[in-house]
Amino acid sequence: MRELAEIAGGALATMTIAPEAAGADEVIDALAGSGAVPSLGHTDGGGAEMIRAVDRSLAALRHHRGRSPAPTATHLFNGMRPIHHRDPGPALAALDAASRGEIMVEVIADGVHLDARTVAHVFSIAAEDHVVLVTDAMAAAGMADGRYRLGALDVTVEGGVATLTEGGAIAGGTAHLVDVAPCGARGGSRPGCRGPRGLDRSCPGAGGRGPHRGAGRRSTRRCVAGGPGARPVTVPRGGREV
Q1: How far is CA 32 from CA 1, 29, 36, 69, 240, in A?
Q2: What is the pLDDT of residues 25-61, one digit of tens each?
Q3: Domain 2-136+178-232 indexed as CATH 3.40.50.300
Q4: Could you tell me if 72 and 106 are in contact, meaning their C-beta atoms sit under 8 angstroms apart?
Q5: From residue 239, how far is each of 29, 43, 133, 204 by CA, in Å?
Q6: pTM for the model
Q7: Would you name the residues annotated as active-site residues?
């Protein structure tokens, strides 16, 4: 991991690690040490493993004064062991940590990956500015229905929903970032919810120039500052409007 980070020359911003994977602790330390943000997800582990990985990531980021003071959870609920009443699993463990301000949770609020009510619960539970709206976009983003490729896999897009041609599992998203803002806004509109700020406030801490950002490193993550109706107003990148 350290060798790959060195080859990247500072361009490595984040990488997803399954907390239960062999060597996960060492990868977390290497990412934080190279200026990248550990992101926890694509996991079949349990809640205890997620909590341990969050604690490890927090300690490593603080030690190395990384670009973010907290790790991220890769597209919460998707690519994770499902919630069960006798086994809450990694998703609820990550959401608990987000309520304490210990992790930034990503949500794919495109109306396909998550129900709007699930998005609403995330915004209600997570600490303010600890939810990040993402797309998980693949090659079909913004494109017509049809056949596409995701790595070595064939993907079929019908009605804007991308699924594996064999098996039918969801295979990434087709929405643009501005497309998830209205769904995030609806998800954050239930009574008592603090409202969606995942586009314009959370990104700087997750991948931009947050308070623990190492000197001289440039952000490669784009954020959208939303106005009324969750319509884009400005798109900053690396501290500049683009």
Answers
A1: 11, 5, 5, 10, 25
A2: 999 999 999 999 999 999 999 999 999 999 999 999 9
A3: no
A4: yes
A5: 27, 33, 19, 9
A6: 0.81
A7: 136
